Fold:
Amino acid sequence: MRDLYLIRCLCVFSAWLFSLGVAYGQQIDTTAYHELSGVEVVEKVRPSVTREGTPLQIMDRAGIDRLGVQDLSEAVKRFSGVTVQDYGGIGGLKTVSVRSLGAKHTAVSYDGVTITDAQSGQVDISRFSLDNVEMVSLSIGQSDDIFQTARVYASAGALNIQTGKPTFKDKSFHTYLKVKGGSFGLFNPVLHYDQKLGKRWSASLHGDFVRADGQYPYTLINGELETREKRRNSDIHSFHLEGNLFGDFGRGGELSFKAYYFDSERGLPGSVNLYNKNTSERLWDNNFFVQSGYKNVLNEKFTLRAMAKYNYAFTRYLDINDKYAAGEQVDLNTQNEYYGSVGLLYTPIKYVSATLTTDLTRSMLDNNFVNGPNPKRMASQSVLAVQYKNSRFTATASLLGTYITDKVEQGEKPDDKRRLSPAVSLSWRPFSESTLRIRASYKDIFRVPTFTDLYYLRMGNTNLKPEETSQYNVGVTWSSSCGDWLRHFSISADGYYNTVKDKIVALPTMYVWKMMNMGEVDIKGVDVNLSTQFRLPLRMSLLLASTYSFQYAVDVTDPEAKNYKDQIPYTPRHSGTVSVTLENPWVNVSYILTAVGDRYALPQNIDRNRIDSYIEQSISINRDFRFRYFGLRLQGELLNLANVNYDVIQYYPMPGRSWRLSICLSYFSSSYIVIGMSTFTFTISLNTVIL
Structure:
């Protein structure tokens, strides 16, 4: 019944959008689209790119500001087919799963270079700030952009985070100071600075600090008894600093350097139940990386690109508990990674292009375990991709070759891994006078076991085989416009089928749990995206968008098991979002609704394992002021308007109704010499909670 209610809420709005589009779409002259060589998108609304052979969804800076989104996980939740595993609060772990394949199958790329974690295989996106992000995109399957690193080809989906590159016209520098504050002790100052260093060079510096106590109230349910509790040990203190250097040498190519530093201390509140409401676990994270990129169009036929990266990551975990002989448990883990990528794009004739890219990665893990294996991994990935693209038809094919070998100081090591992974995609516009496109794609990939899967204490299993995944997708896209009244309308719908073999799961043995290849999963689903934009009187504009996802992801490992053909954990059958934005000369207002159906915390779909569905609503208002050299942006938000008590992860309650305020002051100069900067101070009461 809960899922039926969610479906009705989403379908009513989506049907209304579709009816509006059909009513006006018949009058549209689409001849202008024939001249587009890139994506067929108009205006600022870009829920789904229509030309791609595989699903691609984009949220640019304009869309981020319009919706009032201030957190990366909140932006990612707007994409269809995505599940964000959120452990609650500002400092809670947040990972991304695409179409029920798990976070370890999703690549996270930061300015073109993949973020990796050889230890766990998943990336916590909460550590990345959204304030300096220019665009966030999600590609499912293999993107039509064939000129990518080989590591991106090795994933089921890729979340691409692109930070802003400074641009200068008649100004030599610009900067902004942003301060955010809100419920549960949130204090988040941000400073950004861009500087022109001459005709060829420019630089940027971005820093932010986050502090929050995270002590939000929640309802603890024990049968018929409900009590109001407060989340404890959920504080966070984090600091992020990022510097960039850009060089443009014309025919000599483009060069970029990035240095990134992140440091945090956070409490791990743990799960809540009748007997465990407070924990004393702490986690320290320290991450530093430097990366560089070079791209040069050598001539009309050849383009060269090279990337390099060094990554350092350190974690310290502390658990004070009497169950340990020493009264506490301390885990220290240090990762070092060296990465390089070289690719060549070849365009022999019009409409045809090919790429050859090779990546080399060396990963090392050291920890304080007694007689620990301290593994080292060498990975080589090479991809050959070929593409034919004209105004009506696109065909892409690729073949990825992977070789991985491990070395350990103690114990056994797994066998070397070798694999060829093909992918193919097609996109066709059947009618020259229409933007309707039909697409189909197939991709075969595999996930190598992580260091944790292979070596973690007594749970690790060096005999694990890689998880094998096959992805099939068929979809249609259509976009249109109708003069000044209907500025934009688009719809995309994709049906997909995924299979996972040799899924790595933890199973009990005689004495301990152990990692095993025992899982097989069948996944069927549908993703739908709709968006439209209307021009209204009095210089107003109304933007509407909706997404819907259906996922039937069942375990088919053992026909005799109790969970045979049950929905896999943390995968809702139905989910979706609705957003409404009113832009006007006075104050912009955005309303966002997120609906998620019932899920199950464990493989067996029984009542005690069910996590109830929920509908979360938020509203954001903002206003921009422009002066001669200054810009001022004010924004306020109310999150979880209905004060819904819900879990994304079982026994990890999410915050109830809360608020956020932000103020951003920008300054621009037309002089090459910085004379001085005005001091700007913003103070806000941080401990108010709306109940």
Notes: The two ends are 28 Å apart (CA to CA).
